[in-house]
Amino acid sequence: MTRKETITLLWVSGITGLFFFLFFSDEKSLQNLVISFLVASLYSFLIGGGNGLVNSFLSKKYSWIDQTRTRTVLGMIAILLVNVVLVLFCNYVNFVLIQGISPAGFFKGSIGFVNWLIINIALLISTFLHARSFMNEWKKASRKEVVEQKLIAKSANAQFESLKNQLDPHFLFNSLNVLSALIDENPNQAQSFTSAMSKIYRYVLEQKDKDLVTVEEEIDFAKTYCDLLKTRFEDSVSFEFLVNDGDRKGFVVPLSLQLLLENCIKHNYATSAKPLTIKIYSENGNLIIENNLQAREQVKESAGIGLANIVQRYSLMTKRNVFIEKSESHFKVKIPILTEKITEMNTQNTIEMAAYEKAAKRVEELKGFYGNLISYCIFIPFLFLINWKTSPHYWWAFWPMFGWGIGVISHAIKTFGIGNNWEEKQIRKLMEKEQNSGNWK
């Protein structure tokens, strides 16, 4: 038992002892005040401490978060057994040993009723303490989840930025290789290539900080880049653009076409006798880059930056996949055309806000339930006390106890997700059934 718990139980003992001394003691003396405090301490420390030990033991063995159902069932059984035993023990010490009542009448008459009443009060308070324990564990788990999600988001952001930063040196390195080849082959074309490359690189610098650009922007840039390639390869390479007008309003990751076009040139040979034909078209929500396969022998192993970069960037932004098809005659890459523009990588903020909203909603639900439970624990015993003092022959307090109790149980079922879990399972089953039957596309 911690120091804070001990101080709390002392306060409870003092207030309870003073209450019974003022309203139930016939003789207002220092001796009776001390006895009232000692009796109250007996109840507080035995019942409160006993419940605390049981709660602590169960929480160590069974997690409120991972084993909620098992922890709840065992908690209910433990609450019932521990409180019945401890209350009867405290009542026996109080009524039989201290007040001198005959043991034969311990379970009869008014003493029997007091046993029943105190057991119910102890059960209500113990239920509240166990519910409070669940709330504390859930808060810890929520904070831990938010921290983990923040770390995941930061990692995703860092990875995404790293992938985008690969593009500058990659594009520049390959362009300089082309320029170097042109200087030897055709100095005049090399000059034109240098001028065109400066325009293209300006676009690279403008778009590299964006997560998505329109298909139309990317195609316009790709056409300019194709003109640059035509400067070097002339009639050895041909390009076809057949993109639907409707798909031009969609979005793709920037420089994806440039990387894929570069990939085609890098891995295939192109001659006037056997030209390399590259087609860029849209189909079924995808932007497709296809070329006839004329694989060249690689002198050195490729770094694999281009295609891998696109695949990884898409994996960080959408669940839709990049598809790669290869046959004996052609090589094809399908990149998803997205319908929603993202100007910044807001993964961290989105996850954090979603986690915060979920936590805030859950806290409101828990506050409502605990407010209901605390009110029940406070007012029902007072109603019985009033009933006992005013009309002991007709126990009308049972009616509000049962009615309100049903409401508290229903509130608990809703708050702790018993009904929600059932609904989620049914929804999941229906979704899987629809997917298996082929109705979902």
Automatic annotation (TrEMBL):
Report the residue ranges that make up the Signal transduction histidine kinase internal region domain in this protein.
Answer: 158-236
Record's GO cellular component terms: membrane
Positions of transmembrane segments: 7-24, 30-54, 74-101, 113-134, 369-388, 394-413
* Highest taxon of source: Bacteria
Instruction: Name the keywords, alphabetized.
Output: Kinase, Membrane, Transferase, Transmembrane, Transmembrane helix
Q: Which GO terms describe its molecular function?
A: phosphorelay sensor kinase activity
Pfam families associated with the record: 2TM, His_kinase
- This chain belongs to the protein called Histidine kinase
